[in-house]
Design brief:
Oligomer: single chain
Region (Disordered): 555-579
Number of strands: 21
Radius of gyration: 47 Å
Helix content: 40-55%
Keywords: Membrane, Transmembrane, Transmembrane helix
Organism: Halobellus rarus
Mean pLDDT: 76
Number of domains: 4
Protein name: DUF2207 domain-containing protein
Transmembrane segments: 216-234, 254-272, 284-303, 450-479
Distance between the termini: 123 Å
Length: 579
Amino acid sequence: MIGSSRGIVAVAALVALLVIAAGVGGVAAQETENNSSSANATTTGPYDLEELKTWGVRASENAPASVRRYGDGQLWLRYAPASIAGNPNDPNTYRYLSKGTTIKRSEVYLGGIVGWGANEELDVTVVYWSEGTRRIEDEDGNVQTVPTAVDQTVDETTVTLSGSYDEATIELRPSYDEARHVTVFAEGDGGEATWRFDVHTSQTAEPVNVDTAGDLAMWAVGFLVLTLVLTLALMKIAHRFHERAGKGPGYPIWLYLAAVIPVGFITVVAGYRQVLDQIAEAPWILIPVVALFATVAAISWWGDDTERVGVIHLDLTAPSANEDGTGEIPVNVRTYETAKVGGVRGLVVNGITPYLARARGAIPELSLYCMGEERTEDPSLRFDGGTGVFDTIYFADPFDEDPISIEREGWSLSHLYNAPDLDEGASTVDRLAAQLSAVAWEKILPAIGIVLTGWVLGSLLVSNGILGALVGLLPAFMWAGRPVKGNAEWNVAPASFGSVVLALINSAEELDEVADRDYFKQRYQEELGKNVAERKKVKEETELGKFDEVMEAIEEGDPGSLSDAIDDRDVSGGASADD
């Protein structure tokens, strides 16, 4: 019952999407029928091919290519480039026509210097045509095919140029589907001039029927719903990949932006008109772009169930580690991430290619060896990292110079061709048959079919088969390629080794404490002895000074001075001389 209800919901959602898409397509219906009917109004036309292929005569060698002599003045034809630098409202951005120019806009500008003061009226004829052939039969019944100008459409108008310098706009018929040849004839009192160019109107200039608020709302709802549905579908697929891979590619979203933004900026600047034409011709191309970006962002933000593992390696085989236990022992700490995918515990690394390989079941399976025996599931070999940097800690085999062996996962195309063993006497047919049978056609042909399908869908949906083929390359590669399963082998030490290391660390800390205590005791004794010696020296100097004072008083024969010298106390706190 649940399955049937899900099917009903899926069918209802599909019908709703088709209805919305049909409404959007109806709103976006473009007026191409009128253009094609007017362009094919005449089978051949009043002009010969030689007349229409005439480019015209340049006024002088130094003049721009589209400048023509007209009486005592000049006429020219200019256009606004369909690039980021072109602006129809700014004559400073206009360019002169040259041979081979294709006009992407719906107007050109006829200008000239036709005199001073008086206006000049010009009869302008614009002929749209294509190159074709027609069959001619002579009097003898011989039929030959000759080139001719077919599908001619002629527009006539009158342009008035004021005296001195002036420029007028000539509207062109749009041609969205293909490029058409255009020949312009201008004729007036000063003579006539001719120009020839091609017109292939940009899709951004094509009108669409969005005349009411309801039409605009239909567009908005259609784009919103289709974008949401495609985003959810891509996220569902990506989440399944994420669960099977154990971890995403590991790149933050800003890194994707740093890679995409410069490329996008260069693409827009270099191919501004091509990008706008592509979006205008197939605006729904933005839907998968937005959905894909949202999916990539979601993959970057999704959490994972990886475990951060630290491997500590005390290399007792190093030359600096002496056999008697002295010297220095190098200690290396390596960091890895592991995940359990499909019941297999293996290593995971950052990268798009490893991510896709793990999603196909090619995770490098982790195997633990202790003293030559495989003990992958032995919990006694690991130590809990607690709240530290690592979730789990292993001690590598200290007597192994290289205890870590890792072969990363990846993709291979070598299985697509298996070189056969050919006998020297084999014939050419046998060799060719053997070579053909050595090719994995069951992989190559579907991959080519995927690319061709992308080409067809790109041509139908966005009118760009190359873009569709490029999008199809990824699924084609994943179909034809074969994920190569990696492996990881670690030689680890038994749990007792970790206990020994911890005991050594604790013993070293205790020895350090004893050494610190002895050091400070020695410094205290040295400082105490130094203070005693200084006090003794001061006392001796004081006694010698007092003796000198008494002897000087006796030599002078002054009873008062002698009495003062005898009565003075010793600075050291001793008794007077009378005592």
